Amino acid sequence: MTVQVTVEEPDDSGRRRLTVHSRPASDTSWTLHAEGVLAAGGAQPGSPDDELTEWPPTGVQQTPMDGLYDELAAQGYDYGPTFQGVRALWRDGDEVFAEVALPDELTQGTPEFVLHPALLDAALHAVAATGLLPAAPGIRLPFAWSGVRVHAAGASTLRVRLRRTGADAVTLTATDATGAPVVSVGSLALLPIAPSSCARPRSTYPAMPFSPSAGSS
Most Cβ neighbours (<10 Å): which of 15, 145, 172, 187? Predict the structure, then answer.
């Protein structure tokens, strides 16, 4: 499999179009998986709502972790060991809080990433693990991201808050172990898809429109 990521020259406003394509080694046609817009971040590191200094927050109910990934596999989310990063879960109504971490063998590589993909993926496991969004046929996968802002790079653990904002949508705030902002997502739509549509559900997503807000990176 060949993956092609293309970032175009900036337009008059400084924004750059981004596309992600792939193709099998035996094929010459490219499949578009994601497209979006990149822009330079602003000077401010984030709002107070992007911080999670009290951890876990007061009043939340802890979710049992026993058999978490076995249950997710039964639902159709077949995550391999590298992606089994959830360490703790809590719930408070329409909000879910999670502590996620990279396995030890990947922590040495985090400087190569602004945000390690396995860590971001683990942050989203809390949605299915707690039933934050309504049950739907198939499995829910990220479809459309908007208002994505990266505040810091190189994290190996995250404190995560996911807030339900609709039948198929959540917001996401993630910080480091001190509560300082790492990444925030203004809206993420997770739409149901049949597991048979994905050869490898844990790492293959359908086409994902990506629309960062002004000043995102």
Answer: 172
User: Closest Cα to residue 127, out of 116, 142, 138?
Assistant: 142
pTM (whole model) above 0.90: no
Sequence-separated (6 or more) residues with CB below 8 Å from residue 70: none
Radius of gyration of the chain (CA): 17
66-99 burial, b at 16+ Cβ within 10 Å, e below that, comes to eebbeebeeebbbbeebbbbbebbbbeeebbbbb
Q: How would you write the chain as a 3-class SS string? A: CEEEEEECCCCCCCCEEEEEEEECCCCCCCEEEEEEEECCCCCCCCCHHHCCCCCCCCCCEEECCCCHHHHHHHHCCCCCHHHCCEEEEEEECCEEEEEEECCHHHHCCHHHCCCCHHHHHHHHHHHHHHCCCCCCCCEEEEEEEEEEEECCCCCCEEEEEEEECCCCEEEEEEECCCCCEEEEEEEEEEEEECHHHCCCCCCCCCCEEEECCCCCC
Q: What is the pLDDT of residues 52-97, one digit of tens each?
A: 899 999 999 999 999 999 999 999 999 999 999 999 999 999 999 9
Return d(Cα 7, Cα 52) in angstroms, integer.
33
